[in-house]
Specification:
Largest sheet of chain B: 6 strands, mixed
Order of helices and strands of chain B: EEEHEEHEHHHHEHEHEEHH
Strand order of the largest sheet of chain A: 1-4
CATH superfamily of the largest domain in chain B: P-loop containing nucleotide triphosphate hydrolases
Number of strands of chain A: 4
Radius of gyration of chain B: 19 Å
Shape of chain B: globular
Radius of gyration of chain A: 20 Å
Distance between the termini of chain A: 33 Å
Distance between the termini of chain B: 32 Å
Shape of chain A: globular
Number of domains of chain A: 2
CATH topology of the largest domain in chain B: Rossmann fold
CATH architecture of the largest domain in chain B: 3-Layer(aba) Sandwich
Largest sheet of chain A: 2 strands, antiparallel
Number of helices of chain A: 16
Oligomer: heterodimer
Number of helices of chain B: 10
Number of strands of chain B: 10
Number of domains of chain B: 2
Strand content of chain A: under 5%
Helix content of chain B: 25-40%
Chain lengths: 336, 272
């Protein structure tokens, strides 16, 4: 019990620190980065449910992000739907596309599924480029409305600045984290992991693997779509680039480096790499190239070679003591 | 067909196989095999390598569909049904090469089997996980106790929190049996439960199979090790090149000239 209490206290401390962060650090540029990191955190958590827990290697995750972004932007711009409902709507529409993408996954696995999902995302990106009447093509949608102010009696909140969006995204991250925690630590999560570890074994104990795949694709896409909606109303610009492969690979890299199939990994990876990549941007002039991608690739290789459970695995190993986990110690040393 | 020496007077047929046939390309792996299986019996299925034993079990468990024939389970034809649906009806199986969930703990492996999947699909489970009591993310305590009980039954209670991939091979075979039992089967198909076990482990395995049978579960067991099969079977079916060549009590089958020639003669596995 006391261990759980300690755990609770730590959670409260973390949440409190996150709540006062924008009051302490008021630099808008920094907050912009943090908000983007939050949006990416939702992406990594949703991808982790699909790839890490269910073993479905979806490399078209950017499509769900883009669908969510376009949907919630267009709902607000063309139909005048409140952006708050638009966020939800973007998630639901993305979820529907996730459900559709689930069907090829019923028959395909491994590299075949990966290639199919890449194709799926590329097709949708091309639709966004070419359906100029709706999406304005490569110009993208600009002037997407801000989130509308909330009023509750005398208390009200408006959404102009990064600081305001910070709280919205923080709430979305906490919500997503809570949902993922529940999904993965339940009979549902155990079933997904069973499906990941051995599909035939899973079927032999009565798991209807097809239904689980459809469900997990839908759920994962819903959260990615919601992240897309947040992105649209925060940056107020959505272009076909939101669906491009590099968004998927950023998500993948962050999740893998943080720790695939772990609860904290996606968060750790998304936050650390977002901050790191901004810092590396300052070095770009010095190296005369996008050093960011070089480092990402390098980190990814290290992760796959030395620490399958990513940074979470390293932290766990450090906690358990140096002696019992040689590989983890080496990999940890490389990064500290 | 009541057998002498069996205390139960009335036998009911739990499984009846009629003319079951499976082709792989031009090869007839199982050729019009028929037999029936009474409730609460341990039946052995033997035959030389490649005789079609595993194919037969794969068809009964729904892993592959048959080309012809019927599989009547409690009177319903389940031939061609999907594996998960057949498990939901009450047939569980283990695999020749274990198919455990390697990144789950032993306990979680069994708990995955305990979920009542006739009632709860993925959407319902996902929803339930979100609205369940706060601070209790893990599965319900009843299931947990049942899973621990099953691990105790197969003798690996001490490994409950160990990842399945870290268990020694002999114990993964036991874990797979516990996981199959977790689905509350009426009929259990065991595909070579003794392969890769040493003599001491073999004795334990035989005792375990007997214990499971005592709980009222009908067992169909594929086995290469003659000591095991002669020891525990109430009845034996022998197949050779996909055809059934003998069917009866172990002692009778053992001396059947057809069987001796096909299976026990020449380079037999009986030497083991």
């Amino acid at each position: 019990m006391s261990k759980r209490l300690k755990h609770r206290l730590r959670s409260v401390a973390v949440v409190a620190a996150l709540l006062i962060l924008p009051q302490v650090v008021q630099e808008r540029y920094f907050l912009h980065i943090v908000v983007m990191a939050g949006i990416y955190t939702i992406m990594t958590m949703s991808w982790n449910l699909l790839a890490g827990y269910s073993g479905q290697l979806n490399l078209g995750h950017a499509a769900f992000f883009g669908i969510g972004a376009y949907s919630s932007a267009l709902l607000a711009m063309k139909l005048g739907v409140s952006p708050w409902f638009g966020l939800l709507g973007g998630g639901v529409i993305a979820g529907f596309f996730g459900f559709l993408l689930g069907f090829p996954a019923l028959r395909l696995s491994g590299p075949y599924l990966a290639i199919t999902t890449i194709g799926f995302a590329e097709i949708l990106r091309l639709v966004a480029v070419n359906w100029v009447d709706l999406t304005r093509g490569s110009l993208g949608l600009s002037g997407i409305p801000l989130l509308t102010p909330i009023r509750l009696g005398s208390w009200g909140m408006e959404f102009y600045f990064e600081r305001d969006y910070y709280y919205v995204v923080l709430a979305a991250v906490v919500f997503t984290y809570f949902c993922m925690l529940r999904f993965t630590h339940s009979e549902f999560g155990v079933s997904l992991q069973a499906l990941r570890d051995d599909e035939q074994g899973a079927q032999s104990i009565g798991i209807h693997t097809s239904q689980y795949k459809l469900a997990v694709f839908t759920i994962s896409a819903f959260f990615a779509g919601m992240a897309g909606g947040l992105f649209a109303h925060f940056t107020r610009l959505v272009s076909p680039d939101t669906m491009s492969l590099h968004v998927t690979f950023d998500t993948l890299t962050m999740t893998m480096i943080g720790g695939l199939g772990t609860t904290a990994g996606p968060i750790l990876g998304a936050v650390l790499l977002s901050l790191l990549s901004e810092w590396l941007r300052t070095l770009e002039d010095f190296f005369r190239m996008d050093i960011r991608l070089v480092l990402y690739g390098f980190l990814l290789i290290l992760t796959i070679r030395f620490m399958r459970e990513g940074l979470v695995g390293v932290v766990r190993a450090l906690k358990e003591g140096f002696s019992s986990y040689g590989k983890g110690r080496n990999a940890g040393g490389d990064h500290d | 067909m009541a057998k002498a020496g069996t205390p139960v007077a009335i036998m009911t047929e739990i499984l009846k196989i009629e003319n079951l046939t499976k082709y792989f390309g031009g090869l007839c792996a199982v050729d019009s095999v028929s037999f029936s299986l009474d409730e609460k019996v341990i039946m052995g299925l033997i035959g030389p390598n490649g005789a079609g034993k595993t194919t037969l079990v794969n068809m009964i468990s729904g892993a592959i569909p048959p080309n012809h024939g019927r599989i009547l389970f409690n009177g319903t034809d389940i031939a061609g049904h999907k594996a998960h649906a057949i498990n939901n009806r009450g047939i569980a199986r283990t695999f020749q090469v274990v198919r455990i969930f390697s990144k789950l703990t032993a306990l979680e492996n069994v708990m995955a089997g305990l979920v009542d999947r006739r009632q709860k699909g993925p959407w319902r489970l996902a929803f339930a996980s979100l609205v369940g009591g706060f601070g209790k993310q893990s599965q319900n305590p009843e299931n947990r106790a049942a899973a621990e009980g099953l691990l105790e039954l197969v003798g690996i209670g001490g490994y409950r929190d160990e990842l399945a991939e870290n268990l020694p091979y002999a114990l993964t075979k036991r874990l797979e049996i516990a996981r199959a039992l977790a689905t509350r089967p009426k009929l259990l198909l065991l595909d070579e439960p003794s392969s890769g076990l040493n003599p001491a482990e073999l004795v334990d395995q035989i005792a375990l199979i007997r214990e499971i049978n005592k709980q009222g579960i009908t067992i169909l067991i594929i086995e290469h090790v003659m000591k095991v099969i002669m020891d525990i079977s109430d009845r034996l079916v022998v197949i050779h090149y996909g055809k059934k060549i003998a069917d009866g009590k172990p002692e009778a089958v053992y001396t059947d000239p057809n069987v001796v020639e096909a299976y026990l003669g020449g380079e037999s596995h009986a030497a083991r």
